[in-house]
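Private note to self, pasted from the team thread so I don't lose it. Backbone tokens:
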């Protein structure tokens, strides 16, 4: 077991497992591996454990006493942030887009509340209202004598993204010279940005494709490139360029809405490999994998989303 941050929150490395039956079920001709970041070993954090480990470490190093972040009602990240803050001994204030709802409205909200976070609502479903509220909440907390540490939606800051820069060292050691096409869900983009930064730092051994589930690929790729360059700058490593960021449109009917292709991929993953995929991120990413891999050996990077998978099983309406 290794630890990438001094906080030692995530249990790393996560397994890299071959999935031959799933490869056949998906109609792939080459081998398929699954990187099990649904098993990062902290709360129900999935991919967000790698980011939050570094974020809470940074928050503590800066003397902060309360983590302030936000997202949508079903956000895995806010749930994971609440757990990380509790674990690190920090307070947590979450800003959610939309009108107030009871904690039972979504398992991620129920968990975040159970882990001690204070939840506020923007009264507007537009996700950018969260971005506008975060500094307002931070200023209010500062005025009340607290020391807030603000994290953007999805943990998509250079510090958070660095968690996935470090994950590239981990996966390359596991792949032992093999170079599959990596397919991973991209939302806010911090996860993909870290992978891109790591791939470039280590000489571009991999092709990495982000399955954009939240925004049009062109919008995400600019953000991913900017973040990846910030990660590289922090570490004094070579900066990625535009061609290092590859994204496909995996939104289907829209962000947060299950797609028929995703549902079909999730059913195959469960039956052929025992993998639980959520309808918002991982199912759509797996559905995009066969076309993205283009007949090459492939690696599906499982990013978690277990509570959203449960919400989907319960009817998808939270
Ligand atoms: C299960 C899951 N997979 C993938 C992602 C995408 O990560 P990012 O927002 O860093 O692009 C998220 C983000 O919330 C997620 O919850």
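Design output:
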């Amino acid at each position: 077991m290794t630890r990438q941050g001094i906080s030692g929150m995530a249990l790393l490395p996560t397994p890299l497992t071959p999935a031959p039956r799933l490869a056949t079920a998906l109609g792939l001709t080459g081998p398929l591996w699954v990187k099990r970041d649904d098993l990062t070993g902290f709360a129900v954090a999935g991919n967000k454990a790698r980011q939050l480990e570094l974020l809470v470490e940074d928050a503590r190093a800066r003397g902060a006493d309360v983590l302030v972040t936000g997202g949508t009602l079903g956000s895995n990240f806010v749930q994971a942030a609440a757990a990380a803050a509790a674990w690190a001994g920090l307070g947590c204030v979450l800003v959610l887009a939309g009108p107030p709802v009871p904690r039972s409205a979504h398992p991620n909200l129920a968990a975040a509340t159970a882990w001690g976070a204070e939840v506020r609502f923007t009264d507007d479903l537009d996700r950018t209202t969260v971005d506008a509220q975060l500094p307002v909440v931070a200023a209010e907390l500062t005025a009340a004598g607290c020391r807030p540490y603000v994290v953007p939606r999805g943990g998509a800051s250079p510090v958070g993204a660095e968690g996935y820069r470090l994950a590239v060292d981990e996966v390359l050691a596991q792949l032992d010279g093999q170079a599959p096409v990596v397919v991973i869900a991209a939302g806010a983009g911090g996860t993909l940005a870290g992978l891109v930064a790591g791939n470039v730092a280590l000489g571009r051994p991999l092709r990495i494709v982000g399955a954009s589930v939240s925004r049009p690929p062109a919008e995400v790729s600019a953000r991913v490139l900017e973040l990846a360059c910030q990660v590289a700058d922090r570490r004094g490593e070579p900066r990625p360029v535009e061609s290092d960021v590859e994204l496909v449109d995996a939104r289907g009917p829209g962000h947060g809405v299950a797609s028929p292709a995703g549902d079909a991929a999730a059913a195959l993953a469960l039956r052929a490999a025992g993998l639980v995929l959520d309808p918002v991120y991982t199912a759509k990413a797996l559905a995009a994998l066969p076309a993205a891999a283009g007949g090459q050996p492939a690696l599906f990077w499982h990013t978690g989303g277990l509570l959203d998978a449960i919400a989907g099983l319960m009817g998808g309406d939270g």
